[in-house]
Design goal:
Elements lengths: L1 H6 L36 H12 L6 E6 L3 H7 L3 E8 L9 E2 L13 E7 L8 H11 E12 L19 H9 L7 E6 L2 H8 L9 H5 L8 E7 L3
The protein binds S-adenosylmethionine.
The site of S-adenosylmethionine has 16 residues, from β1 and β2.
């Protein structure tokens, strides 16, 4: 009702002016960090990504594919691993055991991996459905995709700047995933709240916020969306 009145030109009596809210250090148009907080104790979004991988670490086992590097595979897979692969989109990455575009990767055989760790990558790929179809195809039956995507975020200043194509919501990610995986094989969660979203946009580091602030989830402010998708056995 209030929105309709506003649009009709009927303004509410309460019209606060600049300064009504004390914005303190946030009253600036440039962030504290342009590096997601890597230079201020680490990015707040990694708190959610790494907690998710820790919670799902029992699935990081057997032959595991990760994107760009295998640090999460080694950290969360430990002695459950039999083989660790790394996919990179360009051939300039010495860690890569596979090179190619996830949305068009016929060189990777079907039914190969027990687990795919796809963190903070899907937003760089134009053909989202193609990338998820590849994941489903190259997972073994019963294999698990552990996926994280950005919701509310600034855009990378460095290498991936020009390829930052998408931001997600839980609703858009669920629709995408359900075109590829059965809906009862999906588990999604959102992470963040208005304070953490603001801190992240300003580039504040994870050491500058409290655990309590991090752990409060308000689904209207989705900083990170995590998803576990299982290929039917
Ligand atoms: C920001 S890094 C994210 C991966 C990293 N392991 C992480 O969690 O931060 C971006 C990665 O996206 C990958 N990437 C970008 N476009 C891609 C594509 N079309 N297919 C496969 N990987 C792609 C690059 O190989 C790069 O390693």
């Amino acid at each position: 009702m209030q929105r309709l009145l506003f649009r009709a030109g009927v303004y509410p009596n309460f019209r606060p002016l600049p300064g009504h809210v004390e914005v303190g250090d946030l009253g600036r148009t440039q962030p504290f960090s342009t590096q997601f907080g890597y230079d201020r104790g680490g990015p707040v979004d990694r708190y959610y990504i790494e907690n998710f991988l820790q919670r799902e670490s029992a699935w990081v086992k057997g032959r595991v594919l990760e994107i760009g590097d295998n640090s999460y595979t080694l950290r969360f897979g430990g002695d459950r691993l039999t083989k660790s692969d790394v996919l990179h989109v360009h051939s300039n990455n010495p860690m890569a055991t596979l090179v190619g575009d996830l949305s068009d990767a016929p060189q990777i055989p079907d039914n190969t991996f027990d687990c795919i760790i796809l963190t903070q990558t899907l937003h760089l790929i134009y053909n989202l459905k193609g990338a998820l179809q590849t994941c489903e195809r190259i997972l073994k039956p019963g294999g698990v995709l552990l996926l994280t995507v950005p919701g509310i975020s600034h855009i990378d200043h460095d290498e991936w700047n020009d390829n930052w194509l998408w931001s997600f919501t839980a609703a858009s990610l669920r629709r995408l995933l359900s075109e590829v995986f059965p809906t009862d094989h999906l588990a999604l969660q959102t992470h963040g709240n208005v304070f953490i979203a603001t801190a992240f946009l300003y580039g504040m580091g994870v050491s500058e916020v409290t655990r309590e602030q991090l752990d409060f989830t308000d689904p209207h402010y989705q900083v990170i969306i995590t998803a576990k998708a299982t290929k039917p056995a």
